[in-house]
Amino acid sequence: MELLLTGSTGFVGRNLISKIVRETSWQRIILPVRDPEKLKAQLAEEGIAADGRLIICRVSGNFWEIPEGVRPDLVIHSAGLLFGRSKEAFYQTNVEGSIRLVSQLPHAARVIVLSSLAARGPTPSDEEKGVHRLLDRPVSFYGASKLSMERELRNRLGSRLLILRPPMVLGPRDSATLPLFKMASGSVRIKPGFFPKYYSWIAVDDLCEAILKAASAAPAGWQRHDPYHLTSGGIITDSELIAVAGEVLGIRGVTVRLPHAAIIMASFVMDAVPFWRDIVPSLGRDRLRELLPNQWVCDRSSFANHFDWQPRRNLRETLAEAAEWCKGQGKI
Length: 332
What we know:
Elements: E1 2-6, H1 11-20, E2 28-33, H2 36-45, E3 54-58, E4 74-77, H3 87-103, E5 110-114, H4 141-157, E6 161-165, E7 168-170, H5 178-184, E8 188-192, E9 198-203, H6 204-216, E10 228-229, E11 232-237, H7 238-248, E12 254-258, H8 260-272, H9 274-279, H10 285-291, E13 295-296, H11 301-307, H12 315-328
Parallel strand pairs: 1-2, 1-4, 2-3, 4-5, 5-6, 6-10, 7-9, 8-12, 9-13
Antiparallel strand pairs: 9-11
């Protein structure tokens, strides 16, 4: 059995590798990356031996040239562009790159693709929190590119495709969490908007276990289905997220609510100044479209019932693990 994993140097991919290498069912694990040396350094940091089962190959851009002789039985496609400055950049990576990847796969290969709740869009304010079936109405270029990717791959793969839409993902090995901890470590914390914002979230460990649970399911269990949503715990507010981040750091602070107009102005500054754009990519104008709505919630029951899966992590322990990783990296 062969497994091909994309995005192995990214947040979810790094966490997946540490779990996949423990499984003996995979004779070969193919890891196509743009920077093999970066991946080798990360594997060494995790104490993972680059043995004969791990096949590291270099890819260029979004072209995903798979080496000859690679015939994966399963593909976990977790690579993608999270932060970008243009619609074209998101579509080139998330849509066109994904199409090029699957066009090279064996006809029988199954594909688990990591999409995003952004492909569905925010929860309307008049809907019950946690509702599962809503029309797809993405509000960002990122979300629209993920939705387009889902549709293109569904047309090509049919029932061989399983789409997972996680909400906010938290946990160790995520450098994107750093701005949250830096804000929580101060005596004054900034919250966008005057009213609470409600979020579903998932711990990266829970997400990885859900992916591997689906991967181990019999092919007959992969019935054609709407995208599955995944969550850990219950719904949290933005203020709760900031407060718990401060608590795991052992720091108390005061949360200041800023009007959306101030956040919008800040996003223009972030996009205009390359230095700040690199420091806080999550405040770019495209992701601002996702920051303004007050509800991003979803329901995990469909996936949980179909694959007999339940999350195990709570918010405090998840953020504590993320904070410890950031400290170990000398980032906070």
